[in-house]
Design a protein that fits this description.
By secondary structure, the protein is α+β, with helices and mostly antiparallel strands. The chain has helices spanning 24-39, 52-58; strands spanning 8-10, 18-20.
Length: 96
């Protein structure tokens, strides 16, 4: 995404979700390019011809994304619990 000058970041809500300021057609082109690169010319083999998936994947790719892994050190946004049952505990009890 950085090679296309769009922002792309992991969501704070879930580590499997991402957010971006790229328009939908750019995301479609990225997925199409990845699928074409990984499967070759036979990338439409499991998709029915009358489905919306086929319609999207059949359109011409307008951009050329560059797939490279980032060399920068990634920091973990989601830390593991330091010990079992870590977190809010029961309300403090009055001691007499």
């Amino acid at each position: 995404m950085e090679s296309l000058n769009y922002k792309f970041a992991q969501s704070y809500y879930d580590p499997n979700l991402f957010k971006s300021d790229a328009p939908a057609w750019v995301l479609y082109d990225i997925f199409k390019k990845y699928k074409k690169d990984s499967l070759g010319d036979d990338y439409l083999r499991n998709i029915k011809g009358d489905s919306y998936k086929y319609t999207i994947l059949k359109k011409e790719i307008k951009i050329d994304p560059v797939f490279v892994e980032s060399k920068e050190k990634k920091s973990n946004k989601y830390f593991t619990n330091p010990f079992e049952n870590w977190g809010p505990q029961a309300k403090a009890k009055e001691i007499m």
